[in-house]
Amino acid sequence: EVQLVESGGGLVQAGGSLRLSCAASGFTFDDYAIGWFRQAPGKEREGVSCISSPIGSTYYTDSVKGRFTISVDNAKNTVYLQMNSLKPEDTAVYYCAATNGLLRRWERFAPYKYDYWGQGTQVTVSS
């Protein structure tokens, strides 16, 4: 059974940092692409970052480029999202998601392409 469990969210002041973790079970990252998404109240879920499989290329939405970094620890079967220089507009519930399908460029941040989702972790950035 494929499972994803996020952790690491919390309350932080603007300019601070958090590292989110996504622990995976039931599959390995060799065959799955992993994405981080977020959803703020009243807004649609948006893609933040993803890492492709098997090459491991990384992608970021424009609003987080230079501030967020996605990485994989294969030994721990865990994906991380390091978030630096956080802004109040980064406040949202953050989800990790996985797919073993091929992601074309315009699908990297498309929620419908991802088959498995974690429960989410709240990130709140105060001004």
Largest sheet: 7 strands, mixed
> Which structural class do you get from the secondary structure elements?
mainly beta
* Cα gyration radius (Å): 13 Å
Number of strands: 11
The N- and C-terminal alpha carbons lie at a distance of: 40 Å
Oligomeric composition of the shown chains: single chain
In a nutshell, what does this entry contain?
The protein is mostly beta strands and 127 residues long. It has no helices and 11 strands.
Describe this structure in words.
There is one protein chain. With 127 residues, the chain is mostly beta strands. The protein is 0% helix and 48% strand. The strands form two sheets. Strands 2, 4, 5, 6, 9, 10 and 11 form a seven-stranded mixed β-sheet that branches. A four-stranded antiparallel β-sheet has the order 1-3-8-7, with no helix packed on it. Strand 7 (68-73) and strand 8 form a beta hairpin. The protein is globular and about 40 Å long.
Considering the chains and any ligands shown, give keywords for the structure.
globular; seven-stranded mixed β-sheet; 127 residues
Outline the secondary-structure elements:
Layout: E1 3-7, E2 10-13, E3 18-25, E4 33-39, E5 46-51, E6 58-60, E7 68-73, E8 78-83, E9 92-99, E10 116-117, E11 121-126
